[in-house]
Amino acid sequence: MNMKQERKVLTAKEIDQLASDFFDNYGSYFDRPFYMKVLTLPLAQQYLRPSSLKVCLAYQLLTRESLRAVLAEQILHENDGKQHFYLEAGRLKEYLPEEDWELASDYLLLGDKQAYLDLTADGKKLLLPSNKRQQLQHFKECLHNCQSWQNLLDHIRGNHGDMSLAWRFKNQSKLEATLTGRKDYEHVFVLADPEAMKQEYDKFLNRSKKKEADYQHWIEKQIAASDLRGDLLPRAIAQLTLRNETRITPNNCLKILRGLSYSDYDAINHSDYDGHFRFLPNETILQVIDKMQKEGLIAAEERYYADYHVYYHELVPTDLTEEFLRAAPAEKSDLALLKEINEYADKNGLADFYVVKLTQELLQHPALTCVDHSYQAFIAQHDLAREYLKMRLQLTSSKFMKKYLRLLLAGDAEKSIPGQTMNA
Question: What percent of the chain clears pLDDT 90, i.e. is strictly above it?
């Protein structure tokens, strides 16, 4: 029995007929301009699956000229039934516009062999396999989806106001967008009509803006209710909390503000108040820290210190912290008193009752004398203020108040506290 296979080379006329019939039968699966347009989108590399893209893109590089060239190299083995032949990207590129190949080459390797066609044994028909037709059809839908998502993202990027934007795909048909102001606002978009998705986003943006405005109003209300506004010690604690980098516990905060030993002092970004409050008792500082936590001006979060296998609570800012520092001073705060004292420091003829009133208020604000010494001009200018302080020194039994009164009368806070240093 003769097992020798019949071998046949396709003629030019057969090649032309095969190429013409192929594009007549399967032309709807090929749309290179559309592929190239989508591949220029910023989202393309992230959204399109590389494995599908490589196969489907190779088919899109096929032209009548390149198909004729590939067919001219085929030798029919008539006893073999249908035979595969592969569309190698590197062999198709010379038949493409240069700009198309430059774009496609970002995704294809020259030797890739994943796209193929079937030729019948008699050389009468060129087939695009059914599994590849399905793949091309599905991928074209992915390209349209990529366009839709890109349109939505372009709309979102151009319309998110003062809030920051983040987004991620949950899968190819769902996108999660997050708008961040004081809080995070999330919404999941399901693939739909592009205009409908834009309208859906606009509604989400408006809801987020309203929630953000309501939250900002709540913050302002909380700050306005605090009588710590404008007091120097709470401001120092808030600043240190905002600059926190290494284990700012309540006790470590106390050490930094009082200028005491703190092992990580060189590792932190210092505030303007570091070391200024040595005069104040530990209890006073810790009480203020506790009150600030209760009012939500700062918070304490649990941390784990691996070197010693211990948990501790670290002071951290809240959404109220920066607003607290920007807020106008409360009526009887340190900064409000400082402003008033500075206004009358060099004025003669000030009514006696007003001199006594300001001096009495100064006694209620020891933190002021730790940081700002402009009060000295007021005391030096008004003899009645000094006489009042001397009288209070004779009458008081409080050790702290005696020390404080001597500080005021000494005229120099640094000299009155041995070892005190003031950081610029």
Answer: 50
Give the H/E segment covering residue 324: helix 321-326
- CA distances to 162, 231, 273, 365 from 332, rounded to whole Å, are 35, 9, 21, 9
Using CA atoms of 151, 154, 159, 161 in order, give the dihedral in degrees to the nearest 10: 150
**In the block, which residue shows the tokens 């500082």?**
285
Q: Which residues face 184 on adjacent strands?
A: 180
Prediction pTM value: 0.72
Whether 106 contacts 57, CB under 8 Å: no
For the stretch 96-120, pLDDT in tens is: 888 888 888 888 766 667 788 988 8
The full DSSP string for 186-255 is: EEEEES--HHHHHHHHHHHHHHHHHHHHHHHHHHHHHHHT-TTTT-HHHHHHHHHHHT--S---HHHHHH
The 3-class SS string of 87-134 reads CCHHHHHHHCCHHHHHHHCCCCCCCCCCCEEEECCCCCCEECCHHHHH
* Cα→Cα distances 80→6, 13, 114, 115, 216, Å: 10, 23, 21, 20, 76
Per-residue tokens: 4? 């020798």
Find the Cα–Cα–Cα–Cα dihedral 286, 287, 289, 292, rounded to 10°: 180
